[in-house]
Amino acid sequence: MNAVASLDDEKTKALLTEVMIGLIKDKRGIFHEILLEVLEEVALANAISEGRKDDFVPEEEIFAILNGKHE
Length: 71
Fold this sequence. Notes:
Oligomer: single chain
Strand content: under 5%
Distance between the termini: 87 Å
Structural class: mainly alpha
Radius of gyration: 26 Å
Order of helices and strands: HHH
Shape: elongated
């Protein structure tokens, strides 16, 4: 008989869950930063998607506004 320890799916899931919870508790600041970064990326992606629905402004009009020549 082989002496290699094996874990079934439920034990593996429970062990991984315990490890993840421990990491989140111990490294709370890192996970907070990661979540903030993810939320910022999602917000940026949503803003880009929303912007693509509208009509584009011609480059000349943008430069005219920047140069104070817009009517």
